[in-house]
Amino acid sequence: MKDPEKIDVAGDWAMVAAQLPKDWRSLGEELVPTGFPAYMGTKVSDISQPLRLALYHVATNTSLRTTTAVGAAAGIIDMSSVALHKWMRRLGPYLSTLVARMTDAEMTFAPERWAGYDIVLVDASSVSRPGAEGTTARIHYALRLTSLRPVKIEVTDETGGETFRRFEPDLGELWMGDRGYANPPGIASVKERRADVLVRYNRGSLPLYDIHGQPLDVRQRLLRLKRPGVPRQWFAAVHGPAGAVIQGRLCAVRLPPDKAEEARARLHREQGSAVTQASLDAAEYVVVFTTVPRSRLSAALVMELYSLRWQLELHIKRDKSIAGLDRLPNFRPDTIHSWLCAKLLVTQIARKIATPAVVAIPPCAVDGRAARRQAQAQTEPSAPKQRRRGAVAGHDPALAVHLCRAPAHRATRRAQSAGAVS
Question: End-to-end alpha-carbon separation of the chain, Å?
Fold first, then answer.
């Protein structure tokens, strides 16, 4: 009879692979090294090998060394942690392609659907440095939504502000951001590069002006919205640096009563006693500013596009709290790209499988025992790193051999030191 505590590693990977796009293997063929002589012992012969290790690494927030040890013990591939790190630097474009295929992003944000615009999402997220607790840095990223590939990733300390000026838009692009990006200098920087913007209106940082150059009374216009779900638009201009006038539109829609009440409740939770009546009144509406001409996108399409941005941001916020999306492995833009895309890919796979029977992303050598060890670790005092490795390795001799083996670069250093002493 089959041991119920053991996982069929090949079978579990088959389940995961079945959720990927049908051409997932051919998409990664160019990453697999070829043409090397047999005596060089090239290890990676199939893209599934580094892909499985990468998914396990990000899904379990496990170190590179432990991930490679588990992969060797499961019979997938005997790879060093340094080699896996190099793969994590290369896998980003491949992983983003898989995510885009699984989320239909290419169709949803196709330029043909949005008047020829190439949509770029800009956002910033508070993250933690490796091994730290709490917010220690901020990651600023611009994501091309048709391919889910980053235009740019920048990491700053926790005080780094949100601004379009961190990026370099191109002609024909439409850059979307939340209210943190709604300020005249940032909007002017996008227009200077002949791109357009779509941002959530911010009463405190984005003064608007009417066609006569007078301050725009936004509240008065919002009071005209009587029917929920029916968008309206008005001329609005932004005064940029050096007096430049940037023409655009203010688009708004009134929320249904239940959604408006949810928005007010969220404000109470976030701001507490500091919440103002003006903020509570504004919570009844979704208001955006855009420089896109009305001849290209109607007010209804502008509001629809911004709602898609909001849905994507909700997915990211949820994945931060559930999947550990905010626990960065390091601060290299290429590995951050791979880490983010792999996290998004893991959550997409989990949603497609949608069954309680799936408890981990392979490779994994144990099932029930792993869950019990994790629960036990949460209730016991933390042990020194070497003792923890020994405890994990004690359940699997092959894993113990891999973990206890000194990395090649350390062995080389020891040999060099011994030669110098003699």
Answer: 58
Q: What pLDDT sits at residue 328?
A: 64
pLDDT of residue 128: 63
Tokens of 371: 């869950």
The CA radius of gyration of the chain, in Å to the nearest whole number, is 26
Angle 134-135-140 from CA coordinates, rounded to 5°:
150
Strand ranges across the sheet with 245-254: 149-156, 137-144, 118-127, 173-177, 196-200, 285-290, 245-254, 232-239
Q: Strand, helix or coil at 121?
A: strand
HEC per residue, 140-197: EEEEECCCCEEEEEEEECCCCCCCHHHCCCCCCEEEEECHHHCCHHHHHHHHHCCCEE
From the number of C-beta atoms within 10 Å of its C-beta (0-12, 13-18, 19+), residue 406 rates as exposed
Tell me the mean pLDDT per 10 residues along the chain, length 422. 45 83 90 64 80 90 89 88 91 88 81 94 74 67 82 79 93 94 96 96 94 94 92 96 92 93 89 87 93 96 88 59 58 80 82 55 38 44 43 45 47 49 42
Residue in the block written with tokens 């990651």: 139
How far is Cα 65 from Cα 72, in angstroms, rounded to an integer?
11
Distance CA 85, CA 80 (A): 9
> Would you state the pLDDT for residue 392?
41
Give, for 13, the enclosing helix (H) or strand (E): helix 9-17
Instruction: Please state the pTM of the whole predicted model.
Output: 0.67
DSSP state of 209: B
Q: Kindly report the length of the chain.
A: 422
Burial (CB < 10 A; 0-12, 13-18, 19+), residue 165, is middle
- Sign of the four-CA dihedral 329, 332, 334, 337: positive
For residues 364 and 7, the answer to whether their CB atoms sit within 8 Å is yes
Rounded to the nearest 5°, which phi and psi values hold at 239? Answer: -95, 110
| Rounded-to-integer distance, Cα 308 and Cα 104, Å | 13
In whole angstroms, what separates CA 133 from the centre of its chain?
A: 20
At 403 the pLDDT is 47
Smallest Cα–Cα separation from 92: which of 147, 130, 173, 35?
147
Q: Which amino acid is at 74?
A: A
What pLDDT score does 324 carry?
56
Give the model's pLDDT for residue 190: 96
